[in-house]
Amino acid sequence: MTMELTSVERGATPSDEEARLRALNDTHVLDRGAEYRFDRLTRLCTQLFKVPLAYIVFIDRDTPRVKSHAGEITRSRGGRDVSFANMAIQRPGLFVVEDAQSDPTYANNPYVAGEPFLRFFAAHPIESQGQRVGALCIMDTKPRTLTKTEGLILRDLALWIQSELQNDEERARATAVHRALLPTAIPRIPEYEVSGVCVPSQAVGGDFYDWYLTKDDQLVMTVADVMGKGMGAAMVMATVRTVLKLIARTPVLADALQDAAQVLDEDLNRTASFVTLFDARLTRDSGEIEYVDAGLGLALILRGDGRFERLSVRGLPLGIDSHARWRSGYERLEVGDALVIFSDGIYDALGGTDASFGQIARALFAASTLDEGIRILIDGIGDRPAADDVTIIAVRRNSYHRA
Amino acid sequence: MTTFASTTTGSTLVVRPEGRLDLVAAPELREIVAKSIAGGVVNVVVDLAEVDFLDSSGLGALVTGLKSTRQAGGNLRIARAPEQALIVLDLTMMQQVLFPYPSVEEALEAP
Lengths: 403, 111
What we know:
The complex is a heterodimer of chains A (about 400) and B (about 110).
Chain A: H1 7-10, H2 14-27, H3 36-49, E1 53-59, E2 64-70, H4 84-88, E3 95-97, H5 110-113, E4 120-128, E5 131-140, H6 148-180, E6 192-199, E7 207-213, E8 218-226, H7 230-246, H8 253-270, E9 275-283, E10 288-294, E11 299-302, E12 308-310, E13 329-332, E14 338-342, H9 344-349, H10 354-366, H11 370-380, E15 390-397
Antiparallel strand pairs in A: 1-2, 1-5, 3-4, 4-5, 6-15, 7-8, 8-9, 9-10, 10-13, 11-12, 11-14, 14-15
Helix pairs in contact in A: 3-6, 7-8, 10-11
Chain B: E1 3-9, E2 12-21, H1 26-38, E3 43-47, E4 51-54, H2 56-71, E5 75-79, H3 83-91, E6 100-101, H4 104-109
Parallel strand pairs in B: 2-3, 2-4, 3-5, 5-6
Antiparallel strand pairs in B: 1-2
C-alpha cells in the first residue's frame, strides 16, 4: 500500500502550482529588465534594515529569478529546493530565520554552509491573483532578530510591490482594449493605394484612427486625438469612436460632426477634455473628398506634380465651445494625388513648425510607394523619444478606372 | 520642473508659468485657477512668455480656466505666447477662443 501525502505535507498540488505559474506569467514582471521603481525599493531596504543584501525574487517553475537586488548577490547554487525565498512563499506572512547556522533545518543549506554564509534571512511573500508568486527578501551574514515594527515595514513594502504588479496588469489590459479598437485590415481598393501606421507611445494614449470602405463605395478616413494620455484619455477616445461610427451615415459630413459634437459636449465638459479630429469621405469613382477638420490641422493634399497644400477649411476641436459650428471642405484627387492625415505626435517629432509639413510631403514624394514613404518618415524619427502616439494615414489615386 | 508665479489684484489673477506647460504641469495650472475662482477671482491672465512648450494638456488647462472664469462672469486671456504656442493655437484654431494678446497690459485692458 502506498502512502499518499496530504497536500499540506507535499506543499502545493500540481494544479495549484500551475495556477501560481499562470499568475506569475500574467504579471509579465519577468519579461521586463531592471526597473528603477524596484531597484529603489531594494536599495531602501538595505538602508532601512541595515542589511548587506535586499532583493526581490519571483519563483519560476524550476528556479527563483531575481528581479532586483541591492548589495552583492551570490550566484545561484541550485534550484527551488535550496532557495530561502521558495521556503518563504510556502505560506502566507513573514518568514524569518534568525540564525540559520545554529538551526539544523538550514545548517546544511549551500547558502549557509557556503558562500555567502547566510545567517539571518527574512522575507514576505508577494501575491498576484491570490497566488504567492515571489518575495521581498533581506539577509545578513550575522545572526539577528527582526523587530515587530521591522516585520510590519517589510510586509508593507511587499504589499507595495504587490499593488504595483496589479496596476501593471490593469494598464496592460487597458492597452490591449485600446489596440483592439484600432482597425486591423487595410481597406483594399485596387485603383487607390492606402497606407498608414499608428506607433503607440508607452502610455495608453489618446490617438485613434479608422479607415473603412462603406457600402456606397466611400472610403472613410479618420484621425483623432484626445487631450492628454492614459486611461482617462483612452476612455474618452472609445466614446468618441462609437459616436463617430453612429454618425457615419449622416449625408453631409459637417452635419454629422455637428451631431457628434452635441452628443459629446456634456461628456467632454464634465471630463474637462477636448478632442481634435479630421474626418474625410473619399468617393471612389469620382475621387471627390469631403472633409471636416476639428482642430487637428494636420492634413495635406500632395499633387501629382510635386506641389502640396494644407487643407484649409478648419474649425474648433470638440469640447471647446458648445456653440461651435463646422463646415465641410471639398477636394478632389486626380491620378497621382494623395491625401495625408497625421497626428501631432509625428508633427512634434519633426520639429512642430511649418517646415514639418514640407518634410512629410518630401518624404512621401521621394518614395515609390506610400508604404515606403511612411516607413522612411517613421524610421527617421525613430531614435527620438516618442512622447506621444505617432499616427499617419494616407491614400493615393493611381488610376481613373476600377481595376 | 514648471513653476508658477501668480499675483492677485482685486478680482484679477495674473499667472506666469515657467517651463513646460504639458501633461505634467497642466493639473497645477488648473488648480491655481480653480482655487483663485473659488476665492473670488473672475478674470485671469496667463502670461506665457516663459513657457518652453505647450501641448494639448496645457491647452486643456487653459480651456478649463476659460470655461470656469466665464461661468463666474469673467474671462481668461493669454498674453505673450511664444512661437511654439502660437503654432499650437493656430493648428487647433483655438486662437478663436483664446486670442493671444501681445502684452499682459493689453490682456488686462481688453473689453
